Amino acid sequence: MNEPRDITRTRAAYDAVAVSYEQLLRGLMAEKPYDRGVLSIFAERVRGTGNLTVLDAGCGPGRVAGYLDSCGVSVRGIDLSPGMVEVARRSYPSINFAVGTVEALDAAPGELGGILAWYSLIHTPPQRRRDVFDGFARALIPGGFLLLAFQVGDTQRHIEHAYGHAINLDAFLMDPQRIEILLESAGFAIEARLVREADKDEHTPQAYLIARARN
């Protein structure tokens, strides 16, 4: 079965920028107090479930998985881009990284205490988001936690140049209220929401949602 064209384009784009992306974002976590705070809260909530296994779904070069690993959970990462996975493995050799997609998680039903999707759904077309959330719900234990981070908006952007490379990529800004509705319909209860204004290196407000799997 042929994969959707947008997935093929996204993989190619992130393969092209993987090394430059990691170099540019290296050390960025130290400049992002809200990121660190939300990730620390998420890790604490996961630890409270008794299942410390967290999947970083769309891990990129592994920097967020690396931070979570320092927060006392057992994290592994998947990414669509083999180039990103290679960079992540080199940067964080103690963490298990593999090629995989948010739309077909390599996780058994009820296996995970937490799932992180840190800006990894921004390339998923709106009509496929509900299926992604259904898959997240299946992979989590009852009471497990999901953390989403994304840019706030309601538009689609086409990106032709990034991180010093020519690419062909679509990205979607997302409305937090609409995402909450989708999560609730997939069996999640929203536990926390935060929208902050853009930092100096950003163009839009940023949203964080923490949700708990009901069943």
UniProtKB/TrEMBL annotation:
Source superkingdom = Bacteria
Query: What residue stretches are annotated with the Methyltransferase domain?
Result: 54-144
State if Methyltransferase is listed as a keyword.
Answer: yes
A biological process term (GO) from this entry = methylation
Q: Which GO terms describe its molecular function?
A: methyltransferase activity
For this UniProt record, give its keywords in alphabetical order, as a comma-separated list. Methyltransferase, Transferase
Name of the featured protein: Class I SAM-dependent DNA methyltransferase
Q: Which InterPro entries match?
A: Methyltransf_25, SAM-dependent_MTases_sf
Q: Does the keyword Methyltransferase apply?
A: yes
